[in-house]
Amino acid sequence: MKIVDIGVRVFRHVSTQVRDSDGHSHPGDAHDARQALLTITDDDGSEGHCLSPVQVVRPHLIDGFVRHVLVGQDPFDRERIWQELAHWQRGSTGQLSDRALAIVEMALWDLAGRKLGLPVYKLIGAYRDKVPAYGSTMCGDEMKGGLATPEDYARYAEWLLGRGYKAIKLHTWMKPVSFAPDPRMDVKACAAVREAVGPDIPLMLDAYHGYSRSDALWLGRELQKLGYYWYEEPMNEASMSSYAWLAANLDIPVIGPECMEGKFHTRAEWIKAGACDLSRTGVHDVGGIGPSLKIIHLAESFGMDCEVHGGGAGNLTLTAVQKNGRWYERGLLHPFLDYDEVPEYLNARPDPMDADGFVHLSRLPGLGDDINFEYINSNLV
Ligand code: MG
Fold this sequence. Notes:
- The chain is α/β, with parallel strands linked by helices.
- The protein has helices at residues 59-70, 78-91, 98-116, 120-124, 150-163, 183-197, 213-225, 240-249, 263-273, 283-286, 289-301, 313-320, 373-378, and strands at residues 3-19, 25-42, 47-52, 130-137, 168-171, 203-206, 230-232, 254-255, 279-281, 306-308, 328-333, 358-360.
- Strands 4, 5, 6, 7, 8, 11 and 12 form a seven-stranded mixed beta sheet that branches.
- The two termini are 31 Å apart.
- The structure holds magnesium ion.
- Residues 206, 232-233, 258 line the site of magnesium ion (MG).
């Protein structure tokens, strides 16, 4: 078995999400958007696919690095291929991102699953076939009836419970919202949601990522009083010692790191330094499923849960093969958007959730995305 080709299809679709000047997603008017599909083909014609943001799989990255490493290799030699790509990152002067590694690696998993007729989570070794989700809100905004006030968050939390979610995570207000960041407003939103859902629903906060130590500590102590389950990224993660200090001063579990570079190496350092109580990985943050499994197993070895960051088929796969993590992050959610709507380029959502808040794993061979190839091929850019 040999890889013979790597291709990228860029296609257009309609999106109702826009990004603000700091990169946070919000509801917006329907507009033309672009997405990419990376495809790896082997010499018997088998294919593996992975959806990607267009900029992550730009042609010069595919030609300069990915094709160079992959062509001629056995597509089942995922670890060696991944190590070689990771080695190339240094020489790529930062152009070959962990996210690009993740897209390529997940396409290899998809190929293996399709070839063997197995969903990837069964191929790895499943722990469960359905995973409880937490509803993860978008960041706050200034839209009337959106997520503009603590009362908006409370009302939306009630709606989420009605939809079946048994846990909720708030992203509160961040720049460029005019009054953000403000820890007092964060606490008001967190208190309003706790009041709305009652004492038994696990709640989490992903706070503004740049608070000072004193603001982060004050906010954490308020969350403790409200019985929140975890406290996520209130400060810049580049300062690991600030997180060790915060975790030592709080009872509420501190989770992280989420966005720090360094893959499993960084997660190991955080655990060793006592900078987190819950570890964190996500396929796009650390270079794919393989490196995420290393982090999940590392955390398990320390008796620690590792909660998976972000949604999609790859992250859902991780949550189905671990014992030491409670939830799948379903989102980002907003009162003006219907998350359950199926994107035009898929035949079904990869993360369908039932009325009890469980997301069910796809039984299709491969990663779990039911791709609408007809749509993609008719909308190529
Ligand atoms: Mg986060």
